[in-house]
Amino acid sequence: xxxxxxxxxxxxxxxxxxxxxxxxxxxxxxxxxxxxxxxxxxxxxxxxxxxxxxxxxxxxxxxxxxxxxxxxxxxxxxxxxxxxxxxxxxxxxxxxxxxxxxxxxxxxxxxxxxxxxxxxxxxxxxxxxxxxxxxxxxxxxxxxxxxxxxxxxxxxxxxxxxxxxxxxxxxxxxxxxxxxxxxxxxxxxxxxxxxxxxxxxxxxxxxxxxxxxxxxxxxxxxxxxxxxxxxxxxxxxxxxxxxxxxxxxxxxxxxxxxxxxxxxxxxxxxxxxxxxxxxxxxxxxxxxxxxxxxxxxxxxxxxxxxxxxxxxxxxxxxxxxxxxxxxxxxxxxxxxxxxxxxxxxxxxxxxxxxxxxxx
Length: 359
Hints:
The strands form 2 sheets. Strands 5-4-3-6-7-9-8 form a 7-stranded mixed sheet. Strands 1-2 form a two-stranded antiparallel sheet. By secondary structure, it is an alpha/beta fold. The termini are far apart. The chain folds into 2 domains: 10-101, Arc Repressor Mutant, subunit A; 119-358, Rossmann fold. It is 50% helix and 12% strand. One of its GO terms (biological process) is methylation. Its EC number is 2.1.1.-. Keywords: Methyltransferase, Transferase.
């Protein structure tokens, strides 16, 4: 039977897969350049030959040469001077430097390489998990994933969170009230809590996370940012939160990772003073599932397959939500936790995210 006009040919599918292979090579090579300090050295110390780059970064010159050539062939680096293999001089264009090294830029995407790079060592266990229904936690993925997640969201918290919240008048007024007590559930590397502390200096912010190394990282980040006097972090289960203590709670991109989201949301509800809101930021995926999704859907399913769903299933019992948590699923969790309303906030142009107010 002939394929319908809409059906792709085998050649088209093969071409798409080949493009994905090229993209994978680029992503994994950015992981090398990011983690080995090669991008940063080129940006901060200037152009280099392979031996010079290797000496600066304490790495191997032959590997450095292969990476420099690959990066130049793929168009991310520039060849300044040709010659014998180890005498070629390479430099980093300003645009590449921003994307790969500027932790404060909204275009900083090097952390995505870390996230997927962290999956590599876990692939054999991931295969087993897919057979047995078990999971792989953030702790098992290690620092590459942990730091990648924190650094990917950092610029958005630093540059956009204050303005986004200021645009929601009643929420802004609540946060700006002297002595406001703010809870940040699943605070990770702490950048959301730090941004809240900077935006609302009369408030105190308490970040809590189940991952102990993330709490250590967050506390160090707060000290460096000079806000540790009003932004603190603790390691623990949100089920142990004090009752009727907080005036506002936030959950930034973490509800979909929770094995038992209803239990956590119930504890958060009890920790809030009467009428206080919980603000959830999560992926701005489509309202419903449909074939042939857009690039955001495709990327979020990628994170779900390799990171978030396995993490969510690393503890049992598990809701097994996955990264693609659609609005109706969040509403289901919130109502089951005893909240009454869930509404999308009018915050747009905030990366891949959508904000909800739950009361």
